[in-house]
Design brief:
heterodimer; A: 141 residues; mainly alpha; B: 583 residues; 67% helix; globular
Chain lengths: 141, 583
């Protein structure tokens, strides 16, 4: 039992380390981009500090998101929760809202296309005229 | 503590084992048995579950004692203790080594001679444990004192006003002074209210200190502030009295001066009822006084002062005898302010009932008060870094009674109304527990508002104060509220502050409060509601880091709130059930 627990701990720890390494790598890439953009250098400690900060802040975000979802009596984290989390920074909130709208739009379009395809497939073997009508209907939709 | 506890443990061990084997209620006094049983129960390892239950059980009687007859508590406690002790008997062996500060203190109290009980602070002082220990100590010592309680009832209530040694000493002096002035005043309720507001520990300390009043008050070791401050308080008090007598006929120009003089006027009126033409009004004042203190079981000294300041113009005839008002600008007790906050509303409503002739005026004033209260409460929410609790719902009930009775004009929405009482209570206890710098802005805004509302020309010699001010915009009381907070900030900073620094503090407070209220609003709408509810506040506190996985809201409520609020927030805290530890 204890050995299992220790192994589990070890596993979790190593998993955490891998995540941290991934974050660190990404932060490094972004910093390099910014450095080349602004022509300023980033020291290793800075990148390490930023990545550690990002990691911890992600933990906080996750906890907050869970709290928000529970506050709204839901068991799934929603875009609403994310927006609530991001409300502090106006630009971020705007960005997230725009992306959200885009996504919903895209999803609805996808759904419409799928519907159209399905209808065409259904109506095709039945009647070609109806398929044409369905196609017209879906286009209007 | 460990060594002493071990020694005590060993000293008591034979006795414990003896009683363990025999009938628990047999050889010792009831108190001793109870204490023993408690100790046995604790040492038997029930600490995880039973401790909390016992603690709540014990704390309940100690605080209930203030309001309910002690005999019932004794009986209940003995019953509970015995029932628990019976359970504990099964597992008392071999656990006596587990000495907690609580058990240690209990042992000390049990074994100490009767005379030593009279000096509780000397026992409490060396124990740096949290209030739980003290409350438990109280419990054990309370048993011995309970016999004395009926006799000491009147002085006890006064002593209860003492509360924490450092801060409350000031209050004790005032209450003592006031009591000396007029015995019959329902001022005794004030310390009563104070006691309930304070920690459970301090209440018991006060009862102990009652016979040694002059001594305990002078304890330098317990003073958390330099003694000069206390001296100033009393001196200022006396000075205010004198000023009031001099300034009776002088029309007040500023808001503060008339407010300061007004309460002293009323105090003087109380003390010399026959010398003033306001004799007829004094009964109404007395009536309002009990109402005021009854509704807000908190330290209402400063609060009342502020309250009455605001009420002053309106209730000049009817608000005598509020001695706490004398020190509005002195020792700014945060809790006093908090109490004044809520007191005002209740006071206003109470006084309105008393004085139907001023209904219109009072309604206006109350609306304004509500506005200011809402404002203040909005600010208070932010200020509750440590104490935004869901007890606000309970305050809400109180406040809404007062508010809705007067049909408040459009306060800033449901959020404010529901949030404000919560803020008030939370702020109160928050300020009580931590020396925070976010006092309530209620008193100043209400003062300003009421003074501006200063209604009809009150016939007596009270000067028409706020006439010069005129109707103020809503922003103004907000600012005065913030300035009041800034003053509290400087008070707690214990060092002189620049004006610019205070202004910056005000700005920060402003932003903080607005931000906090925006958050609350967003939280409420996030849950699909239009009203801010305690769940929103709990979420806010979670985000602030005050409530986390280790510390739940109930723990905070238990730690910092008096029982009256606790029982409203945590229904089972006062349900009177005996909770047995689940096996």
């Amino acid at each position: 039992m204890e050995e299992d627990k220790a192994a589990e701990e070890q596993q979790r720890f190593s998993y955490r380390q891998r995540l941290k390494a991934a974050v660190h790598y990404n932060v490094g890439c972004l910093c390099e981009e910014v450095a080349s953009d602004k022509e300023i250098q980033f020291s290793k400690q800075t990148i390490a500090a930023i990545s550690e900060l990002t990691f911890r802040q992600c933990e906080n975000f996750a906890k907050d998101l869970e709290m928000f979802a529970r506050h709204a009596k839901r068991s799934t984290i929603n875009t609403e929760d994310v927006k609530l989390l991001a409300r502090r920074s106006n630009s971020l909130l705007k960005y997230i809202t725009e992306k959200n709208e885009e996504l919903t739009q895209f999803n609805s379009e996808q759904r419409a296309k799928k519907k159209k395809k399905l209808e065409e497939e259904n109506k095709k073997p039945v009647e070609p005229a109806e398929a044409g009508a369905a196609g017209r209907d879906s286009s209007t939709v | 503590m460990g060594a002493g506890g071990a020694r005590l443990c060993s000293a008591q061990a034979p006795w414990v084992f003896a009683t363990k084997t025999t009938n628990p209620a047999m050889p010792c006094a009831e108190l001793g048995c109870r204490g023993l049983e408690r100790r046995l129960k604790e040492s038997s390892g029930y600490r995880g579950l039973g401790f909390g239950a016992q603690k709540s059980l014990l704390e309940i009687p100690s605080s209930r004692r203030l309001s309910i007859s002690t005999k019932m508590n004794v009986r209940q406690r003995s019953q509970r203790a015995r029932s628990i002790g019976r359970l504990a008997h099964v597992q008392t062996s071999g656990h006596l080594e587990e000495q907690t500060p609580r058990t240690l203190l209990k042992n000390i109290l049990l074994t100490a001679p009767e005379s030593s009980i009279v000096m509780p602070e000397s026992v409490v002082k060396p124990v740096p444990t949290p209030q739980v220990v003290q409350s438990s100590k109280q419990e054990s010592s309370r048993g011995s004192l309970e016999l004395q309680l009926p006799e000491l009832e009147p002085p006890t209530t006064l002593a209860l006003g003492l509360l924490a040694p450092g801060r409350r000493k000031r209050r004790l002096r005032l209450s003592v002074f006031q009591q000396g002035i007029d015995q019959g005043l329902p001022l005794s309720q004030e310390p009563h209210g104070n006691a309930s507001a304070s920690f459970l520990t301090s209440s018991l300390n006060l009862t102990f200190a009652t016979p040694l009043q002059p001594q305990s008050v002078q304890r330098p070791g317990l003073a958390r502030r330099p003694p000069t401050r206390r001296a100033v308080d009393v001196g200022a008090f006396l000075q205010d009295l004198q000023d009031t007598s001099l300034a009776l006929a002088s029309p007040g120009n500023s808001l503060r001066t008339p407010a300061a003089t007004l309460p002293t006027d009323t105090v003087l009126e109380d003390t010399q009822p026959f010398s003033q033409p306001l004799v007829g009004h004094s009964p109404s004042v007395y009536h309002s006084l009990p109402y005021l203190f009854h509704t807000e079981a908190k330290d209402a000294e400063k609060a009342v002062s502020h309250r009455t300041q605001s009420n002053g113009p309106r209730l000049q005839n009817h608000s005598p005898g509020k001695p706490a008002q004398l020190l509005p600008t002195k020792a700014k007790k945060v809790d006093a302010l908090a109490m004044s906050f809520t007191n005002t509303s209740s006071a206003i409503s109470g006084e309105d009932e008393v004085e139907p002739s001023q209904d219109v005026v009072s309604e206006e004033a109350e609306e304004m008060m509500e506005e200011s209260l809402n404002m203040g409460e909005v600010k208070d929410t932010t200020g509750t870094q440590g104490s935004v609790r869901t007890e606000k719902s309970e305050r809400h009930a109180e406040m809404t009674e007062a508010f809705e009775a007067k049909e408040p004009e459009g306060s800033s929405g449901d959020k404010d109304i529901s949030a404000s009482p919560e803020l008030a209570s939370s702020t109160t206890e928050f300020l009580q527990t931590r020396q925070l710098q976010f006092p309530k802005s209620a008193p100043p805004p209400s003062t300003a508002i009421l003074s501006s509302e200063d209604l009809e020309p009150l016939p007596t010699r009270l000067p028409p104060r706020a006439r010069t001010l005129g109707p103020r915009p809503r922003q103004d009381p907000y600012k005065t509220g913030l300035s009041h907070y800034a003053k509290l900030f400087s008070f707690y900073a214990r060092m002189p502050m620049e004006k610019k620094a205070l202004e910056m503090v005000e700005k920060c407070l402003d932003k903080y409060f607005q931000h906090l209220c925006d958050d609350l609003e967003v939280f409420a709408s996030h849950a699909g509601r239009k009203t801010v509810r305690p769940e929103d506040l709990e979420l806010l506190m979670h985000r602030q880091g005050l409530v986390n996985d280790q510390v739940s809201l109930h723990v905070l409520v238990e730690r910092h709130l008096p029982l009256e609020y606790r029982q409203l927030l945590i229904p089972c805290a006062f349900s009177g059930n005996s909770v047995f530890p689940a096996q």
